[in-house]
Every structure is written in structure tokens, then in C-alpha cells.
Amino acid sequence: MALFAVSCDLDQLPSEGIVAESLSNNYEGLLAATDGNYAMMKDVITYYGADNTANYWIRHYHHLSEYASDNVMLSGSTTDPLYYVFTREHFASMNNTSYLWFSSYRIINGANQIIAALSDPEDEDSKQLLGENYFLRAFMHLELLKLFAMPYSHGRDNDGVILKTSVEDSPLMARSTVGECYDQIEADLLLAVDLMGASRGSAFGSAVAAQALLSRVYLHMERWQDAIDYADEVIANGAFELEPKSNYVNAFYNSASSTEAIWYVAQLLQDDKTLAAVGSMYLTDQGLGWGEIYPSESLRDLLGQYPQDVRNDFIKPDYEDDGVTVKERNGYPKYFITKFSYQDDVVTLNSPQMIRLGEVYLNRAEAYAHQGDIDKALTDVNTIRQRAGLTGTDLYTSADFKGFTNILEVVLNERRLELAWEGFRTQDLVRNKMDIDRSYPGVHLLNGETDQVIPWSDNRNIFYIPLNELTNNIEVDQNP
Length: 480
Description:
By secondary structure, the chain is mainly α. Helix content is 40%, strand content 6%. The chain has 3 domains: 20-251, Serine Threonine Protein Phosphatase 5, Tetratricopeptide repeat, CATH 1.25.40; 268-353, no CATH class; 356-458, Serine Threonine Protein Phosphatase 5, Tetratricopeptide repeat. The strands form 5 sheets. A two-stranded antiparallel sheet has the order 1-3. A two-stranded antiparallel sheet has the order 2-8. Strands 4-7 form a two-stranded antiparallel ribbon. The protein is globular. The two termini are 39 Å apart.
């Protein structure tokens, strides 16, 4: 995949500039170009004439999705733009938002090229590739919406992102509404489900992956029964199973062998970004990694209520020589996070899971909660808790929400624990119109402050449209 050069021209595919028309009957070329689209999620793409190891889609996506949440704390200042994500001091020329916007639309463009080239295939292999590119296009638009537009629950008519659905689209386009964007994403995923047959493996899009993503999309759209129906399809399919507690941690370290990973971004040893890897900000081991982002005190406290919960194993205290005292950085205790490390025993290598079965169960649980079906919501939540090693009185019942006020709070708390550091938390709170409570130590607090509660309606729950887009496209309006 690394061999595929990315073309800037709108009439070319991302595989050494091969013109789309010349590939319309060339399956091997279309296959290579599709693989090139996936590769752009992990590869460094030349951006404004420069190659920067820290500039690649997965890394910036992870920071932008996760670091503004209540799951993490930053232990000091850094020159990396991730600092402005964590502190919420956003500005339009941030490198991370600019690169992610640029690379996301590059991938969308690549998908559009193949969609145009294939048009109406008859053979199953070509249909599979067409479906994968519809899936990729939908996913990229969805993630752009998460970062640059208010959630669907805040209003269909709010500004969304620029919908790119054709190679003939003008470079000067206004933002579509949130509702229009979600409608297009839904249409793309439904097409993807119909087109895709035999999966090429979990490193690629599949019909099951598209169904799982639809369960997420319908959850965002508050179409509760549709979210349940598509979650049912995925769970009943049997192609994926929840990992047992005994292999839970290892299944994140080695996604390729996970029975739960529906879709992951495959990284091999040659893809290891070392100090620029996603896991490097969370961990220092064997002299590798920065180890500057730690689990928030509130999240550690939640997990610590149940020491037998296997999800505690992702938190690794950095002890002094006495083996008891936790080291500190700038006065903050050092608790490393290992969820994005240790693939093939390499400290900084990992293939992040973008869609997995645990999320699908919790999508269904939340939809049941919104419908008021407490028993079914608790069944799904307790399935996840039992897998984590919790039994007996550690499970929820309709008579015992363990301090939570209602079933939705129960579900969202379980999503926080299960999907921690996977980029869901901020949007889970904001789309449910719940405030983000970051009242715990970290550099996000000013001197003397002990509390920080961010309203769900705060404009900085999303990012500014990048300045480069505004400069080059007069049709685009900035976020407030």
C-alpha cells in the first residue's frame, strides 16, 4: 500500500496518477487504488510540500476525537497542536485540523474516483470494491461531521460539512446541512451493504462493517428502532464475537487476531511511527514514547470501584523503585494507558479498531434506553460487564442503578468504560445534551481552579473549519 502515490488532480486515482477511465475495466488497478485509499489513513501524505511523520490521519483523528473529553488529562505543555485540543483553545489554522480535513477529503476523492470508474459492475469482486468505497466515503463524511459540525440532535438544519459525492464536484462548494450529510451517509451505507459480499477481512470494509456503522449513524439520528435493527443484524450474523476476558487486552494489542474487531486500520512494522505513534503520548516503555497523556482521575476512580474489571489492565502505573509509589510528572501521578500499544510486542505499534462488536452492543443498549426498555438495555450493558469480569452484585438490575439516576446514565457510563480513549466520549455527551465535567487535575485548569464543566452547547465542542479551506473556498462559512 505504501507504494501508492497520491495525486492532487481530481481526475486521477490515488495510485500513481492512473486516469480513472483507464481503470474502468481494470480490476487489479481498481483493487490497488482502493487499497491506496485505506493506506491514506495511516500513511504520511505530503502536505503543502512537506512530509511530517506526525502528520497522518489516524493520529490527528485520535487526538481530535478524544483529547477534549473527560477521559484524559495532559500533564504538561507541549508544542504539538494536540495541546489546543485538550485545552480547547482552538483556532482556525491548527495544523491537526487542517491536515485531517485535507486528508479526509483526499480519501473521499479517491473513493469517488473508483465509484465513478466502476459505475454499474456485474461481477461480485467489482461490486465488493464499489461497496468498500461507498463505505469509506460514508465513514469519512461521518467523522468530519463529528469534528466540525454540531450533532444531529442539535438540529438537522445546522451547517454540516462539504458533501463530496462526485469527481465532477466544484472545488468551491458550501457546507451542506447536517441533515443532508446524514441522509447521504445513510444512502452510501445502505448501498455498501447491498453491494458487498465475501469480506476481504477486517482490515477492509464489509457488509457487516457497514451495518455496524449504520447502527452508529441511526443512534446519532435518534432513529432508535433502526439502530436496534442494524445492531441485531450484526450481532446475529455470528461473524464476530466478543472477546473473552482472558484475551480482552491482547485483542486490542493485536487487532488482526481479534474476534471482535469488525474494522481496523492495519499497520505493519514498517508503518510504526515510533514517537509519533498514537500510543506514544500515552505510554513510556523501553525508552519509547512520550507518556504525557494519562487517564483522568474521574475515569480512574470509576474503574477502580471494580478492581476485578479487566479494563483496569489498560492503566499501568509508573512506579518508583520501591514498587509502591507512583511517579509524578509536573506533580501529576503517572498512569500510562496501553490500549494503543504492543502489537507484536512492539511498544509503539498498533492497529486501531474503528468499529468493533462491543460498541454495537452498546449502540443497541443506548437505543433501548431511549425507548424506555430498561430490561433490554440492562441485558446488553451487563453482557459487556460480564465480559469484563463482573458478576453478581456488580451487575445492574432494574432495582439497582448503582447511584445513577436513570437508564440512559447507566448506558453512557458503560460506554465511557468500554469505549474509553476510542474517540466516542465527547460526542456521546454532547449529542445527548449533557455537560462535560473535567473537574480533575491537569493543565486544562487555570492556577487555583478545581472545576471545569463545559456546557453541551459550547461552540468549542467542535473545531473551526480550517483556514486553508476558507481561504481557497469562498462558499464556506466558519463555525461560530
